[in-house]
Design a protein that fits this description.
The protein is an all-alpha fold. 69% of the residues lie in helices and 0% in strands. The C terminus is likely disordered.
């Protein structure tokens, strides 16, 4: 009902209205292809996207990617707008990571956008400002570059240095740990200190009950692919998988 009312009135919506609406539909997994198609058309028709805050732009394309709603012209317009900005200082880590994650998930290629964001993050490291990047921000960014096939060795080195130097990795969940090493292996990027730090962290966890089969397999695949040996990690994940298989047999 809300979509039916909104569609003929989209010309009255400002940037924040459009962003909030699309984000809301995506957040509750309420797909409405007609609404997303026409909202995307309305945004594309705007003379410029200057009225959209950085978080609003990232939320919009994140919503399309999350609900698997396609709109290539919208993605291109948003990407072109971001590339043309003088700098990305107004983009918070979540907005940066969600932007590249959305493009990678939607299979929307835009190398200039990825380079602009990567260069910005590398610059932030030089200013010691990556402390605001949490586990999800780092993992999603690395995953997006690897998935999109966008090479940027400096980005991988800087983010790897940042993660390896953290006092604690408790803010990284299991999928984020797995996706991080998977991204390095998929991109052919080496970072021995990072791989050792993540392996030591996983080995030191009291339980791996939150690691699913894909997390385990992606992790050992990544270590094997880059030639990083860590016997304790492989043994712990092997026991985890073995126990999981035994539990499945008992249930059967």
């Amino acid at each position: 009902m809300l979509a039916e009312v909104a569609i003929p009135n989209l010309h009255k919506f400002n940037g924040q209205d459009l962003s909030n609406m699309l984000w809301s539909y995506s957040n509750v997994k309420a797909s409405n292809s007609q609404l997303f198609e026409q909202a995307g058309d309305a945004i594309v028709k705007m003379n410029n996207l200057n009225e959209f805050w950085p978080q609003a732009l990232s939320n919009i394309i994140w919503a399309y990617a999350t609900l698997d709603e396609s709109h290539s012209k919208l993605f291109k317009n948003v990407a072109d707008h971001i590339v043309e900005l003088n700098n990305l200082h107004n983009f918070k880590p979540q907005a940066l990571s969600n932007t590249v994650w959305a493009c990678a998930t939607a299979k929307e290629q835009h190398s200039q956008l990825f380079k602009k964001i990567a260069d910005h993050i590398v610059e932030l490291v030089g200013l010691d400002n990556l402390k605001s990047f949490n586990g999800q921000d780092c993992s999603n960014t690395l995953w997006a570059f690897a998935t999109a096939g966008e090479s940027h060795p400096q980005l991988f080195k800087r983010l790897g240095d940042h993660i390896a130097g953290l006092d604690s990795l408790r803010h990284f969940n299991e999928q984020e740990l797995s996706n991080t090493v998977w991204a390095y292996a998929t991109s052919g990027e080496s970072h021995p200190r990072l791989f050792k730090r993540l392996a030591d962290h996983i080995v030191g966890l009291d339980s791996l009950k939150s690691f699913n089969g894909q997390d385990c397999s992606n992790t050992v695949w990544a270590y094997a692919s880059v030639g990083e040996s860590h016997l304790e990690l492989f043994n712990k994940l092997a026991v985890k998988q073995s126990n999981g298989n035994m539990n499945s047999l008992h249930k059967e």
